[in-house]
């Protein structure tokens, strides 16, 4: 993990409300794995003070400016504008200074061997699946990606996934792109066709919860990337803890999403607690009250 005081290479809107940002980050790629994230400081001294977490979409190198000079290494994130921090990010330009901490957290376990792998991404949850797809394909796996969104605006990078060799399937709630309906219906069908598949998923909690129910019913191994709100990203504030499987008041089990996760094997999580959004977790009020 490294704190980069660095510069933006590009920041472009790719779909209404969705942006791709490339940031200079020497040596980032050799340390980063699929499913890890960065904490991005949008502006120093002025609100919002906190860093914001974003999944790593990809790392790579830009061509060198002149012969003999090293090529520029970048990390790319894709973000959706939802509030104050991401609105400021959307106004940034090439050359603007930013701060980036990463790579952070534990990513997907891609060492589970070759075979059928089904990736299920909802909206911005598609982000960590791009690097994952690349790693799985390099390991000789067959990768099928189920992309879900409310509308066509929530679907991005289809061609890039396909160029990796991924079979893509798009579904939208309103039918504006691909099949009309929930991505989880497609998952049901695919698991009937590929019963030995392993599933990897990232997206909004209702979708993740439905994916978990389906995989449990099919006895399918599942890894999920959670997008719990985070304040520090490094295990210091306890603002991101989730309850582990088997948690009780007598035998509490709390998992720090930024340190142990954000990717978890589904059997290690308490899904009934995750579904309750009125859950009060230790430390969250004390440490994160007043965060902006
Ligand atoms: C590990 C991790 C990876 C993430 N990866 C991405 C990514 O690749 N691309 C991306 O666009 N976003 C990602 N997010 C979510 C992103 O961090 C938030 O959207 C961002 O912090 C919002 O900042 P803001 O200041 O614009 O919004 P705020 O003003 O802080 O909040 C605006 C609204 O968004 C809601 N919100 C804030 N954070 C989250 C969250 N984590 N989940 C659901 N709702 C939230 C708030 O409750 C509020 O309603 C990730 C989050 C985590 C924890
Ligand atoms: S975000 Fe602070 S401990 Fe995880």
Proportion of strand residues: 25-35%
Number of helices: 7
| Ligands (ions, cofactors included) | flavin-adenine dinucleotide, FE2/S2 (inorganic) cluster
Global geometry = globular
Number of domains: 2
- How much is the radius of gyration in Å? 19 Å
CATH topology value of the largest domain: Rossmann fold
Mean pLDDT: 89
Main beta-sheet annotation: 7 strands, antiparallel
By CATH reckoning, the class of the largest domain would read: Alpha Beta
Uncertain segments are 277-292
Distance between the termini: 24 Å
What's the helix and strand layout?
Elements: E1 2-15, E2 18-24, E3 37-41, E4 51-55, E5 58-62, E6 72-80, H1 84-90, E7 97-104, E8 116-122, H2 127-138, E9 142-149, H3 158-164, E10 167-172, E11 179-180, H4 183-193, E12 198-202, H5 205-218, E13 222-225, E14 241-243, E15 254-256, E16 263-265, H6 271-275, H7 284-288
Parallel strand pairs: 8-9, 8-12, 9-10, 10-11, 12-13
Antiparallel strand pairs: 1-2, 1-7, 2-6, 3-4, 3-7, 5-6, 13-16, 14-15
Helix pairs in contact: 4-5
């Amino acid at each position: 993990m490294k704190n980069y005081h660095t510069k933006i290479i590009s920041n472009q809107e790719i779909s209404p409300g969705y942006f791709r940002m490339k940031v200079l980050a020497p040596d980032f790629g050799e340390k980063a794995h699929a499913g890890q994230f960065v904490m991005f400081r949008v502006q120093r001294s002025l609100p919002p003070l906190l860093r914001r977490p974003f999944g790593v979409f990809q790392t790579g190198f830009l061509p060198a400016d002149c012969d003999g000079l090293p090529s520029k290494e970048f990390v790319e994130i894709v973000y959706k504008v939802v509030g104050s921090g991401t609105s400021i990010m959307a106004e940034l330009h090439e050359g603007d200074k930013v701060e980036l901490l990463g790579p952070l957290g534990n990513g997907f376990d891609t060492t589970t061997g070759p075979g059928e792998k089904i990736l299920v991404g909802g909206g911005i949850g598609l982000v960590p699946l791009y690097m994952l797809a690349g790693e799985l394909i390099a390991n000789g796996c067959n990768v099928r990606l189920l992309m879900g969104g409310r509308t066509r605006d929530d679907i991005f990078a289809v061609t890039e996934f396909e160029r990796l060799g991924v079979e893509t399937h798009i579904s939208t709630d309103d039918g504006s792109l691909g099949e009309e309906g929930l991505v989880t219906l497609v998952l049901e069908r695919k698991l009937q066709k590929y019963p030995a598949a392993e599933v990897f998923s990232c997206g909004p909690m209702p979708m993740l919860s439905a994916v978990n129910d389906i995989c449990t019913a099919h006895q399918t191994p599942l890894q999920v990337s959670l997008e719990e709100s985070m304040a520090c990203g490094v295990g210091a504030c306890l603002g991101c803890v989730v309850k582990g499987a088997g948690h009780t008041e007598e035998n509490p089990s709390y998992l720090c999403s930024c340190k142990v996760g954000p990717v978890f094997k589904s059997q290690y999580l308490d899904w009934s607690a995750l579904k309750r959004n009125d859950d009060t977790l230790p430390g969250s009020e004390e440490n994160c009250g007043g965060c902006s």
